[in-house]
Amino acid sequence: MTNPPALRPALATAPAVTFTALPFGGAVLVDGSTFAVVECGDRDAALIEELLEDRPAGTRRPDDGGERARGAARLVAEGWLVPQVRTARSGEGGDEDEPAPEKAEGGSR
């Protein structure tokens, strides 16, 4: 079952990337294809959780000074997160969100 369009997050973890919140704060992003790992402090972990969560449009907290947009752009540029791409699935009459194709190799992680 997919979420209604208004509740779909704009970003998703990249293929083979797992985001795990840690029990005592912070989080890690792990790329299972390269075994790259990045540790996130509480602030970055909260940002990533917010970027990935399902929320109706217009209910996110105000972005103070573009911090969320800069953080999202950095995570996408580094290949940890990817924009959701809306594609029509033939025969099912609805839109389905899929991660955008992975960027070309050679990016820094």
Outline of the structure:
By secondary structure, the chain is α+β, with helices and mostly antiparallel strands. The chain has helices at residues 42-52, 67-77, and strands at 11-13, 17-21, 27-31, 36-40, 81-89, 94-99.
Structural commentary:
This protein is α+β, with helices and mostly antiparallel strands and 109 residues long. The protein has one domain: Alpha-Beta Complex (Outer Surface Protein A, domain 3). 20% of the residues lie in helices and 30% in strands. The protein contains 2 helices and 6 strands; from the N terminus they run E-E-E-E-H-H-E-E. Strands 1-5-6 form a 3-stranded antiparallel β-sheet. Strands 2-3-4 form a 3-stranded antiparallel β-sheet. The protein is globular, with a radius of gyration of 15 Å. The termini are far apart.
